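We were asked to recover a plausible sequence for a given structure. The inputs and outputs are reproduced exactly as logged, with field labels preserved.

PROBLEM: sequence recovery
POSITIONS: 213
GIVEN STRUCTURE:
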């Protein structure tokens, strides 16, 4: 019985020592992890998400294709940025432009539709057939004028999230036809490749300057 008791005591001692050693290892591992964590590099994700924009350099590049027109009657010093090849007010056309603020931020991306003919449509909405897909655009307000046997209808709309996708699709389209629906009649027009390229360029620079919809 004495030998059996001795063997049991030895086994119990071995188990206790094993548990003590294991606990010591866990403590050591935890300490190492705690020490290593203090040497982790600082994440640069915030810089990657918000890259620094060199506005002056972008504007300098834009000058060959864009006009910068300051509104001398605007107390905030608002500047309109428009392409040099935008259509005149007297012809059918489609174009975009945006606002450059005093702090060099940009905002107020706008879309212009101009209709010229010999008779009124009193346009209510437009259907853009973009590479075979139809997208509806409903102007907030249509302006009208006439003279010399000609009529003009146009809208100048601030583009929000509702029509952001329309502008993006126009900018990358190959072919676009537009159906202008009036009170009783409708007419169709085609957006030229030059006007599509112009809208694409305006959108590109607007976003390079940090513009959002």
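RECOVERED SEQUENCE:
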């Amino acid at each position: 019985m004495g030998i059996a008791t001795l063997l049991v005591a030895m086994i119990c001692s071995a188990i206790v020592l094993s548990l003590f050693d294991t606990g010591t290892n866990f403590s050591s591992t935890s300490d190492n992890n705690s020490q290593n964590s203090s040497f982790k590099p600082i994440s640069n994700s915030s810089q990657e998400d918000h890259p620094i924009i060199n506005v002056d350099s972008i504007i300098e590049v834009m000058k060959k294709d864009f006009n910068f027109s300051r509104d001398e009657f605007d107390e905030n010093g608002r500047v309109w940025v428009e392409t040099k090849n935008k259509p005149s007010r007297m012809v059918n056309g489609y174009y975009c432009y945006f606002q450059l603020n005093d702090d060099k931020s940009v905002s107020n991306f706008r879309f212009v539709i101009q209709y010229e003919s010999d008779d009124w449509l009193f346009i209510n909405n437009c259907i853009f057939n973009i590479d075979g897909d139809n997208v509806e655009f409903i102007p907030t307000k249509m302006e009208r004028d006439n003279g010399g046997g000609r009529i003009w209808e146009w809208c100048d709309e601030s583009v929000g999230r509702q029509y952001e996708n329309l502008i993006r699709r126009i900018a990358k389209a190959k072919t676009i036809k537009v159906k202008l629906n009036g009170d009783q009649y409708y007419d169709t027009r085609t957006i030229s490749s030059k006007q599509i390229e112009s809208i694409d360029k305006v959108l590109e620079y607007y976003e390079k300057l940090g513009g959002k919809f």
